[in-house]
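Look over this one:
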Amino acid sequence: MRILGRDPDGSGIRVQVETDEDVWHLYNVIEVGDLVTASTTRREEKAADKLRAERAEKKRMTLGVRVEKIEFSEDDLRLKLLGTIETGPQDIGQHHTLILEVGDSLLVSKAHWRETQLERLDRAVRDSKKPRIVFVSLDQDEATIAVLRQFGLKEVTTIRSGRSGKQYAEKPQTDGYHDEIISKVVPLMEPGMPVVVLGPGFEKESMAEDLKKADPATFGKVHVYHTGQCGMVGVNELIKTGMGAEVLRDSAVGSEMEAVDQLMTEIGRNGLATYGTNEVRDAAVSGAVEKLLVLDTKLREQDMDDIVRAVESQKGSVLVVSSQHDGGKILASLGGMGALLRYRLG
């Protein structure tokens, strides 16, 4: 994401959507009641001929829409903002839907910007410089391809080898299993993007070599790790156990899942951790919070600035956890908020 400018009174911030992760960040920043101004298409108004207006071609125009409903589509990474037209050349007071995706620019105007929302925009600017990661999790029978975005893991596809044990033993290199995997991975790649090949057995080493041979320029960063299982279970195992830390250290998801795992460990042994809004607020006010973990959906629904300020004023850190991965789901089961503590309370 790129910040293009800010209104002098601080109410509006203009941004450029540069990556698909930016759409997710905007979903966590824009609220019902905000005024969002962007280029869109709408049929030209023909007050005297409604039928003709319905058939008229859509024209591009800039409209300001007062948001009444927000929809995020993870499948095609688009954000829909439904609301009433408040500024623009026509149809003031009528309903319109803004559809935001990569390449769009928009002005988001709020009566009040929360500190956590401003930090989210700053985070989006930082995260846009970090590469995503492609996982190929496989054994000799099946391969799962997944992408690690800044907001979570997404399974792309699963490929079956169609091998039998005997055929594989006799002719390990004559089938198109690896070729099919490569054909699915190539469209996902971007310059500098690392590929992590993982799984049990020896198939992963063979796959990694085939990737490098297929396109050395595209697959310049291939990392191989052993896991007990393949599929998405193997990918989550890799992340949760801290394997591949040198690849994942720049990933928001990797750090979030590691922090949630640490939180659960401390809770499990009745150690230096607490969870729940009231408990965490008391710990924050007391200066006991070393690291605050808060779910992104909780920040969308509630104003947590007082807790965040209390933690940061005592030199604690704040980690916003995405609800889209396993770590976020665990944190959601704790009420959406937890904290690692400097000392035990009470």
Summary: The chain has 13 helices and 16 strands.
